[in-house]
Design brief:
Layout lengths: L6 E6 L4 H12 L4 E8 L4 H13 L3 E7 L10 H11 L4 E7 L10 H15 L4 E8 L1 E2 L8 E2 L5 E4 L2 H14 L7 H5 L3 E7 L2 H13 L1
Parallel strand pairs: 1-2, 1-4, 2-3, 4-5
Antiparallel strand pairs: 5-9, 6-7, 8-9
Length: 212
Amino acid sequence: MVNRVKTCAVIVAHPDDETLWSGGTILGHPQWQWFVVSLCRKSDKEREAKFYQAIARLDADGTMGDLDDGPAQSPQNIQEVAQTVLDLLPEPSFDLIITHSPQGEYTRHLRHEETSLAVLNLLESRKIRAKELWLFAYEDHQRKHYPIPIQKGTYYKTLSPKIWAEKYKIITDTYGFGPESWEAQTTPKSEAFWRLNSLLEARNWIKYKRSR
């Protein structure tokens, strides 16, 4: 599948998620057409400006939504999250969609989990379509360490020093996170994904993870 990709949507909760969890993959495949959707922070004008600067460095297009991202992290209606995804995507069909895992990448961020479930619901209802779905594969073992890529993920790749350096610069120079920040310390040098080739495979994967 990887060699056949032409169009790819990266659907994330926040500006910087696209770079943290898949920035190396985006940078490593400049021949693909990338479109990045961030569901939160459009009204944060400083963060909005940084997002567009970041995706420009990634050679991608994209847009932002403004879902609530306050500190309370009150649960949101998944149907409303899904509608926001639909409203922001430029088209409903892609070769590849990349998004959060239903378990998130660390313990825990509700917006990441909601984004994943909304995308899966849209795929199930066929309101969006993809030949392949990749879910970020990272874990922090209940905050025991910074999020790390899961080596048993179905796609695991160590980034070249050049690509990782550019990814790190986007986090620190473009987004402005200091070298001691959680974001800078987290920035993975390898990236991992659960690659799912069908909606049935996605459903079975979620059931398996929830049963553990």
